[in-house]
Amino acid sequence: MASERYELNMNMKCVKYMIFVISITFAVVAAMLLSMAVAIGNLFDDFQSFIDSHFFVPPNLLIAIGIILLVIALFGCVGALKESTAMINIYGVLLLSVFVLQLAAAITAFVMRGQVENMVRQKIFDSMADYKQVEGYRNPIDMLQNTLECCGVDGYSDWLKFLPSDENTMEYPETCCAAPPVEGECMPRDYGCYSRLSWLISQGSVLIATGTVAVAFVQVLGAVCAFMLASAIRRAKTLRATRRWHLQQSLGIMTKTIDPEYTGMEKSETNVDPDKYLPTSPSVN
């Protein structure tokens, strides 16, 4: 019994500290996911004129998941230290629930990655077409070309479709120039904006997908450890209650009042058995 109790307590301590370490790790990972999601969200905000609104769903979902994981990690640490079966079970269930959300975010990011090519190309062409007609479109396309150091969609020649030119000269936006124009002549950049912007969006989607999948499978391990700890705590509490009950029964028997018939302090009037010896019986000597 003692060896079994010792082994059970040691197993429970091992699982408890494992849960505590996993919860702390989740807190660190959640903070990293949160910072990554905020960075990707800010990057998408910078180029929001060229990105459809549904592309903001994965980073926003990842921000929510990071905040939820921070709360769950704190909940798990408290539950492990208090050895609360209910809190540990809730901790495991919450981890599995967030696991489903993370898989949804990862799948969404992977699916959207395949939509980047057509979306980016069309958005940049639309902005270039309205460059002269609509004043509001100048800032986004100028910001895009200036930030990514690019010109046009696939190259500077794309501006031939939208800006006036003749056999000798062609007009470019100033942000297309690799260096400040000299005497009105601009040396356009060689790289188009499509490849650079689509790479940024694709890499953001890949980071979201791979990050959430990696953390999600670690969460499954955390949930399994949580349920193991809850089972160990339940067994330990049952064993302690059983030992306490046996101890109480033993103490009850020891402190129970014994019938004076067997004390030998006084003669028993109910002793009718002639073969039963009492201290008051006549001596045989």
TrEMBL record:
Q: Which UniProt keywords apply?
A: Glycoprotein, Membrane, Transmembrane, Transmembrane helix
Q: What is this protein called?
A: Tetraspanin
- Which InterPro entries does the record cross-reference, listed alphabetically? Tetraspanin/Peripherin, Tetraspanin_animals, Tetraspanin_EC2_sf
Q: Where is the composition biased (Basic and acidic residues)?
A: 264-276
**Would I find Transit peptide among this entry's keywords?**
no
According to the record, the residues making up region (Disordered) are 264-285
> What parts of the sequence cross the membrane?
20-41, 61-81, 88-112, 206-230
Gene3D superfamilies the record matches? Tetraspanin (1.10.1450.10)
Q: Name one GO cellular component term.
A: plasma membrane
Which family is this protein grouped under? Belongs to the tetraspanin (TM4SF) family.
Membrane topology recorded in Swiss-Prot or TrEMBL: Multi-pass membrane protein
Q: Where in the cell is it found?
A: Membrane
Q: What is its main location?
A: membrane
